[in-house]
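Long-time lurker, finally posting.

We've been working with tRNA-specific 2-thiouridylase MnmA (Gordonia phthalatica) and I want a structural starting point before designing mutants. I don't trust myself to interpret raw outputs, so I'm hoping someone here can both generate the structure tokens and explain anything notable. Sequence follows.
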Amino acid sequence: MRVLAAMSGGVDSAVAAARAVEAGHDVVGVHLALSTAPGALRTGSRGCCSREDAGDARRAADLLGIPFYVWDFADRFKEDVIDEFVAAYAAGETPNPCLSCNEKIKFSALAERAVALGFDALATGHYARLKDGELRRAVDDDKDQSYVLAVLDHDQLSRAMFPIGDTPKPQIREEAERRGLAVANKPDSHDICFIPSGDTRAFLGARIGIRPGAVVDSTTGDTLAEHDGVHGFTIGQRKGLGIEAPAADGHPRYVTGIDAETGTVTVGPATDLDIRSIAANRVVWTSGETPDGPVECIVQVRAHGGLAQAVATPLDDGTMRIDLREPLRGVARGQAAVLYVPDAVKGDRVIGCGRITGSHA
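Top reply, 14 upvotes:
Generated this for you. Predicted structure of tRNA-specific 2-thiouridylase MnmA:
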């Protein structure tokens, strides 16, 4: 099988490519240039897509004896990932850019080019598994990335390969060292790849500008502080609210609501964060078929954490309602609600996902 291996310059994608070669596939490596002005070096574990990363990917490909190319996707990445990320925050949402990147860049734009060039599959270093065409959690729970891959539809999954999803991360590093890959001990990337400083608020502020508004107490209706824009807040946030005095009851306040139109950020007690129903659009059913009725599942609303027993109901307009068996906190518009069905033998499988548009107590 002809396999295009996406090589970021990290240890995971290098080992994924190596395993594809070892399996006997005809493998070609490709590094995606996603920045119009890439830095020369990474800053420790922050950022990616630097010239250093491209060089690391090329050296790994050379060691594996496979052809290697750098493809420029910077304009597409800016439009489909960065601009969407900024617009979502400006609208008071909390997006996950990895979801957009997987959906629109790696498994859409890149996969489409791969198919056009005659490749049968796209291999990546994601921690997830495919069993009988179904997306499942990785063996390594701490590194599992099935959440950010749940946006992939049936056709995209049919052309995907996740060679390292059956192995814990420490063993991947050991394998890389045995194979002589120089990236064996390279730090993992953290935070958002296109914000190497790690200062998301400053990044957004430079692009959105100042849009002043008020921080309002949900209990009293009092204005507690002023702010420069709703992009500086997320649901469930406790610190950095600009509030000087404690609440009358002495308990901390949390962001419980964001209204981008009025610029109002509502804060209140932790109990105000309890959610029992979620509405979602842009629904993807992994099998390619919409269920006939309600489905018992586990819903996850953040990449790491935020799980609850639930019943997901597909609606006639293509959206979805998720009723929770137990309350969840920190549910924000713009996040993904990913649906899993537990399987103790084969690992939890993803059955669908949607983009959260609203929630109710």
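Before you design anything, note these points.
The first strand starts at residue 2 and ends at 6.
Confidence is low (pLDDT under 50) at residues 40-47.
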